[in-house]
Amino acid sequence: MTMKLYFDPHSRAQVAKWMLDEAGVDYEIVPTLIREKAHKTPEFLKINPAGKLPALVDGRTRIFENAAICMYVAEKFPGKRLAPPVGSPERGRYLSLMVYSTSQLEPAMGDAIMKIRSNNSARGWTNFEAAKDAVERELGEGPYLFGAQFTAADVMIGSMFIWHRAFGGRSNRPKIDAYIHRLQARPKGMKFG
Ligand SMILES: N[C@@H](CCC(=O)N[C@@H](CS)C(=O)NCC(=O)O)C(=O)O
Question: Which of 15, 50, 126, 153 is 20 to 30 A from 65 in CA distance terms?
Fold first, then answer.
């Protein structure tokens, strides 16, 4: 059965699409336009109770939140080598970066776009500059977060910066800018922004 991606092109559903495209697997797009409130229908809320895009349905499995979708796809198609294998030494760092991308980097990036200035790390994240420091440390010499191997962590972390650019933001970090260009130059790279 073909996987179904609930998608609006002007949304973070582009992140899940990028992941599926990098995996090179079959999937079907189910247009779900936010401006038509298609993400708030009772049918859609049974898939994603939060009423947000994206969501992925694979037979009887439903997955919401981009990080979960990316991990699911990497796990379902291990041959695509989009995640360090379970049991490998890199696996812990991979899981950490996947969760970090959405628990700290995403809200910090959101604050930056909304021009919310706060150093109150009691919320669970600090600010976008602190997040950039962390990403720079993890990137090391690159070219990707896991050296030469492109993974779902690059989709999650990279897409946050691509999204930030789409809203007119600039990282002002040459190392991160070079990384984003590298990601967008990939044949299947997330193009907007
Ligand atoms: N952390 C979530 C963010 C999802 C999200 O905020 N989606 C937005 C679109 S970019 C949405 O559906 N907003 C509509 C709404 O909340 O009503 C993810 O990565 O899946």
Answer: 126
User: Two tokens at 172?
Assistant: 């002002």
102 Cβ inside 6 Å of ligand 1:
yes
Using the mean position of ligand 1's atoms as its centre, give its distance from the Cα of residue 134 in Å: 24
Q: Where are the beta strands (DSSP E) in the chain?
A: 3-7, 27-31, 55-58, 61-64
Tell me the per-residue pLDDT of 119-129, one tens digit each, with 9 for 90 and over: 888 999 999 99
Q: Which domains are present in the chain?
A: 3-80 (3.40.30.10), 91-184 (1.20.1050.10)
CA of 66 to the centre of ligand 1 (A): 9
Length of the chain: 193
CB 22 less than 6 A from any atom of ligand 1: no
Closest among 18, 5, 19, 13 to 58, alpha carbons compared? 5
Say whether 53 sits in a helix, a strand or coil.
Answer: coil
Separation between Cα atoms, residue 188 and residue 182, nearest integer Å: 12
DSSP 62: E
pLDDT tens, residue by residue, 91-137: 999 999 999 999 999 999 999 999 999 888 899 999 999 999 999 99
